């Protein structure tokens, strides 16, 4: 019965008139990592009036002939339990880290390791954005990758990308990796 | 799988999507759950739960129908992928179904329904009550309510200052007229002028004009004094719009202009040389000088002229006092007859006392009420149009 239901829903997707390939991306990370700023930056929107996210934001970005539906979910501790609800059918996970917030590197590492163990994210590629590189106190991306033990990931594609969501630097590089990866995977 | 098969299945599903078996439960769901959907940019976490429930509902409805009609899942799948299902004309019909898969579509559907229901409710309330209750016309949210409050205060202040200005202008105009006419009396009878005025201070010759002078001065004075009263009135009458503001604005600007004229008669009994009343006396003298048509300042005039002017000034003060007293007397009788609402403290000081506060307030209140009504109308328009 459960299987039948899933089938019916997946069919409904096919009713859509558009032939554009849609990609579901979930954007996660601790509070104040810069997820919403990054989302706005991806959508080429104003990044100056951003307040802490209590719920979630969605933006659809067209890139490389695909429609990327990016879900940015609030990162405050009390909201994190809700992340699970948004992981289903996800094609790619973007994880954002505040590179200048050394005190919480451990916390953010724990959250990420919990996420990659989620059943619904099995085999889903991960892009880690080492954000806030514009700050003088930011740690380099390589150091962060080491701290997160990214090199131990064997079941999925991963990438770490240094960026500054505020200036937009490095964001496009990350996007390019996403698009290449998705096309490769779906082919 | 034959093309006709797919076509038949799609058509039958389209028929189902137009039937009450589908429409009623879906409409019910949307209307019941739409209240949390607003037009904020950010989505609430609760939207996801509602979306999930919607998915379950749609699935259940479709499944039931398919079972009833005998469409297998495979047939349905094939039908959905057929080009016929993707034609533009069918896309709008499928929208409620597609909303299960597309959160943003679902969200806009819910937000739109919420807006519709709100407007409907507003219309209903308006029809039932004739107009919207204040709680609905006042602020859509706290921020705009505060802005509206500010607007109210601002408008009131503007109105006040306009009233003041007009009053001041009319007062000036009338006193100017008065001065002009008295001086014309003096100048046409230059020889008799002084003797006559000394002999017979007959103010009845010009009662309307001089009364008017007093009138306008009085009302201005009254307004100043009646302000605290109307301020109190405002507080007691539910709306707390700037009970402090209006009195401050009016009294500060009015006292400075009006009080010298008002206090001048009070001090008429004191000797002119008295240092306290120097200023007031000088004003009187200056006035008298102008009335008499002397062009030089008082101090440069000859002794006899000075004397003459002082007499003239004294006379003017006397006249004013008399008229003042007469006016007060009239007001007192008027007030006594109209239930004597004058505060007892005011009657203690006879020169500064009885005012027809009742009338003043009622007039002001009326104005205020009109203003409020106007505002309410505006708000209503804005809310509804939104």
Automatic annotation (TrEMBL), chain A:
GO term, biological process aspect, one: protein transport
Ligand binding (Mg(2+)): 36, 53
Keywords: Golgi apparatus, GTP-binding, Lipoprotein, Magnesium, Metal-binding, Myristate, Nucleotide-binding, Protein transport, Transport
Entries under SUPFAM superfamilies matching the protein: P-loop containing nucleoside triphosphate hydrolases
Protein origin, superkingdom: Eukaryota
Family annotation (Pfam families): Arf
Entry GO terms, CC: centrosome; Golgi membrane
InterPro entries, A to Z: ARL2/3, P-loop_NTPase, Small_GTP-bd, Small_GTPase_ARF/SAR
Residues bound to GTP: 29-36, 75, 131-134
GO molecular function: GTP binding; GTPase activity; metal ion binding
Keyword Lipoprotein tagged: yes
Topology relative to the membrane: Peripheral membrane protein
Main localization of the protein described in the UniProt heading: cytoplasm
Locations listed in the record: Cytoplasm, Cytoskeleton, Microtubule organizing center, Centrosome; Golgi apparatus membrane
SMART domains assigned to the protein according to its UniProt record, in alphabetical order: ARF, SAR
Family that this chain belongs to: Belongs to the small GTPase superfamily. Arf family.
Annotated protein name in UniProt: ADP-ribosylation factor-like protein 3
From TrEMBL, chain B:
InterPro entries: BART_dom (IPR023379), BART_sf (IPR042541), CFAP36 (IPR038888)
Region of interest: Disordered: 165-257, 319-374
Keyword tags: Cell projection, Cilium, Coiled coil, Cytoplasm
Domain (BART) ranges: 6-118
A cellular component term, taken from the record's GO annotations: ciliary base
Record's subcellular location: Cell projection, Cilium; Cytoplasm
Comp. bias (Basic and acidic residues): 165-175, 191-205, 220-236, 319-332
Start-end of Polar residues biased regions: 180-190, 348-360
Keyword Cytoplasm carried by entry: yes
Protein's UniProt keywords contain Endoplasmic reticulum: no
Compositionally biased region (Low complexity): 242-257
Major subcellular location class: other
Homology family: Belongs to the CFAP36 family.
PANTHER family registered for this protein in UniProt: CILIA- AND FLAGELLA-ASSOCIATED PROTEIN 36, PHOSPHODIESTERASE HL
Name assigned to this protein: Cilia- and flagella-associated protein 36
